């Protein structure tokens, strides 16, 4: 990705001021209310259930049951109801994949308001069929006001990829499907025109890498964009990183601000030992996904953006938390 000479400081300042990043600070409320580590009285486990990841990882036999949920923003549901329904399934599947898991089934809660409710469900159905993950139940109710949608997914992992597992000295990688185009202002859509085979092959890479022991930590790139999603991973692990923007996989001639704040339909930030980088990138390449080493994890608890010899501080997580789900002391 290209950044104009001398423009890094201004770009970083714009990224820090984005509303999408500020919305992630709302997570500090549940972080204050709920403990970062939980245990079930009904299902005692060998290890605690940690908050702050893309999905809850529930120890289960020789692996983990994964549970994730997403609520769709009402303005997206109103503006593009079919795409909102499609995304409600897709983003949950990405959360499961980011944890090293395979998705099993989806449930939803649809509050049928003034929006195009059937179009929402049609979008969900399309994603369900393409990805091969059934919608098996949920809840519907009539409400005044806008249509509201929330979706949850159940999955399973044999071996986890967790945002709690980044370590200083690891290499930072970014994997993203560039075979798409922008839809609406901030969504880079590489999913709705793809084949079922392509979408399922992409999701399958993450659990395969996890089971091979190649990946340390990971997180899918959400509405917080590349930098915000990476900052959430770093906060959870209690580490920092340097992100080299010139190495970030991106569409040709894309505006850096637009790309770094975009929600890609398939995008992940990962950490790994340097010895595993080539194998990881080769595995993504086999399914047509761009993957590159884009930086290094360190112990600063800061995320710095770098380009062509310039460096700018994006966030200092030791001074101001983002989600509040920081690493355990």
Q: Pick out the low-confidence regions.
A: none
One letter per element, helices H and strands E, the order comes to HHHEEEEHHEHEEEEEHEHEHEEHEEE
Count every beta strand, where a strand is a DSSP E run of 2 or more residues.
17
Oligomer: single chain
- CATH homologous superfamily grouping of the largest domain: PurM-like C-terminal domain
Task: Determine the strand fraction and express it as a percent band.
Answer: 25-35%
CATH architecture of the largest domain: Alpha-Beta Complex
Integer average pLDDT: 95
Helix content: 25-40%
How would a crystallographer describe the biggest sheet? 7 strands, mixed
Strand order of the largest sheet: 11-14-8-15-12-16-17
Count of domains: 2
**Discrete helix count:** 10
């Amino acid at each position: 990705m290209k950044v104009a000479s001398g423009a890094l400081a201004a770009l970083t300042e714009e990224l820090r001021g984005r509303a999408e990043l500020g919305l992630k600070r709302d997570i500090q409320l549940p972080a204050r209310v709920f403990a970062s580590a939980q245990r079930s009285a009904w299902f005692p486990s060998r290890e605690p259930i940690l908050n702050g990841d893309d999905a809850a990882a529930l120890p289960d036999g020789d692996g983990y049951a994964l549970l994730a949920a997403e609520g769709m923003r009402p303005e997206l549901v109103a503006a593009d109801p079919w795409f909102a329904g499609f995304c409600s399934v897709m983003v949950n599947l990405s959360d499961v994949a980011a944890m090293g898991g395979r998705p099993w089934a989806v449930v939803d809660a649809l509050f049928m308001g003034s929006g195009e409710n059937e179009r929402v469900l049609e979008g969900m159905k399309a994603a369900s069929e393409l990805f091969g993950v059934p919608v098996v139940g949920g809840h519907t109710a009539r409400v005044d006001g806008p249509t509201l949608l929330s979706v949850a997914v159940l999955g399973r992992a044999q071996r986890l990829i967790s945002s709690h597992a980044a370590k200083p000295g690891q290499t930072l990688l970014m994997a993203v499907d560039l075979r798409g185009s922008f839809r609406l202002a901030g969504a880079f859509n590489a999913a709705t025109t793809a084949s079922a085979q392509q979408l399922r092959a992409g999701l399958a890479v993450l659990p395969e890498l996890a089971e091979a022991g190649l990946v340390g930590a990971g997180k899918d790139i959400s509405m917080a964009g590349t930098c915000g999603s990476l900052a959430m991973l770093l906060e959870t692990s209690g580490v920092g990183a340097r992100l080299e923007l010139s190495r970030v996989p991106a569409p040709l001639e894309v505006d850096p601000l637009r790309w770094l704040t975009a929600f890609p339909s398939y995008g992940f930030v990962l950490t790994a030992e340097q010895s595993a980088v080539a194998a990881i990138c080769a595995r993504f390449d086999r399914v047509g996904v761009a993957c590159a080493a884009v930086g290094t994890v360190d112990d600063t608890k800061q995320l710095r953006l770098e380009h062509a010899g310039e460096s700018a501080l994006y966030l200092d997580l030791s001074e101001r938390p983002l989600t509040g789900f920081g690493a355990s002391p």
